[in-house]
Amino acid sequence: MRRVVGDIVIASVTAVALCSGAWLLHGGAGTQAPPQPSAAEARPGSADPRSAPALPPSPPDRVRIPSIRVDAPLMGLGLTTSGSLDVPPAAKKNLAGWYESGTTPGETGTAIVAGHVDNAEGPAVFYDLGAVRRGATIEVDRRDGGVAVFTVDAVEVYDARDFPDEKVYGAAARPELRVITCGGEYSRATGYRGNVVVFAHLTGSR
């Protein structure tokens, strides 16, 4: 199944390349898997009813999630030949990416940010994404000099076979953000079998 984001079609296997679990595969029996979201963080409804006015389009340069100590540059991501979202180079563990053919963070619609959970050397940029809580803040530095401030509404984990394309990538009437990495059950044969998705909406700017 495929889902249109803006004028571009993304395959439902979007984050499969994020999910090899190379560190867990080579790290030995003592290696701990990344945190997974609890059911309490996946409750429907906004964590913050406020909604800020949409910002004009501007590419993002950096993403910060203070509650899990993320402060990372953003690179533009396109699509692979199979139609899935490309991913940042695995070797650059503190680098995330945004889908540059879609909505820019802060404008009306659904903006997409993705990054690795780990690489062969250890935890990567979104290793702790599953520990984010409803109500947490995500800040995105924009190339126009402004900062888009989002509030987390929910944090969910999905098996890759049941990934809800419409819910994650569907059009939004207000500025929204999705932050995606891999997660869920882990297999040494196939890596992570799902994705952690953070849902957030714009509540401020500066």
TrEMBL record:
Record region (Disordered): 30-64
Signal peptide annotation: none
Annotated InterPro entries: Sortase, Sortase_dom-sf, Sortase_F
Keyword DNA-binding: no
Taxonomic superkingdom: Bacteria
A Pfam family recorded for this sequence: Sortase
Entry keyword Transferase: no
Gene3D superfamilies: Sortase
Entry keywords, A to Z: Hydrolase
UniProt name for this protein: Class F sortase
Organism: Streptomyces phaeoluteigriseus
